[in-house]
Amino acid sequence: MARERGSLETGVTPGQARHERVVAAVETRAAERVHMIAAYMGRPPARADRVDAAAVRALGEESKDLLSGVRTEQKRQVSLAERASSRGLSLGVAAALAAMAEILAAAAAAHGRPAWLLWPATAAACAILPTVMALI
User: Fold this and answer.
1) 135: which of 32, 33, 47, 75 lies 20 to 30 Å off by Cα?
2) pLDDT tens column, 7-64
3) Distance between CA atoms of residues 21 and 8, nearest Å
4) What confidence tens digit (pLDDT) does each residue in 54-94 have?
5) Per-residue three-class SS string for the chain
């Protein structure tokens, strides 16, 4: 009825709008069928579906505890990966500072300026901090 009245707003005659009832009936039947298919496909698998026993057990009713454990392990692994990433970044910064210290030391030696050795010493000392942070 709503489809029919909605089509009347477009300027068609009531006789032309009646086909909307047929379309609505077909859509209703199709929606019921889609709901049945979704309910069947969304149910946990059974051994009769020729699914591996481990998959049946993992996806079955008793899987709530299993999935809870899997989620906990997944969160732990994500946390470990984030810490490893932070450590890698810290070590990369330390390596860059150490390389800069080497370049500064080479420049000080090439120009014969011992006072310039303060800069590479400072850069080397700064490289220690991210290294220690990565190892903690």
Assistant:
1) 75
2) 767 777 777 777 777 888 888 899 999 999 999 888 878 778 888 888 777 776 665 6
3) 12
4) 877 777 666 566 667 778 899 999 999 999 999 999 999 99
5) CHHHHHHHCCCCCHHHHCHHHHHHHHHHHHHHHHHHHHHHHHCCCCHHHCCCHHHHHHHCCCHHHHHHHHHHHHHHHHHHHHHHHHHHHHHHHHHHHHHHHHHHHHHHHHHCCHHHHHHHHHHHHHHHHHHHHHHC
Q: How far apart are the first and last CA of the chain?
A: 70
Count of CB atoms situated within 10 Å of the CB of 105: 17
Q: Which two tokens stand for residue 101?
A: 């210290």
Q: Is the pLDDT assigned to residue 134 strictly greater than 70?
A: yes
Q: How far is the C-alpha of 136 from the C-alpha of 130, rounded, in Å?
A: 10
| Residue from 130, 108, 133 nearest 119 by CA | 108
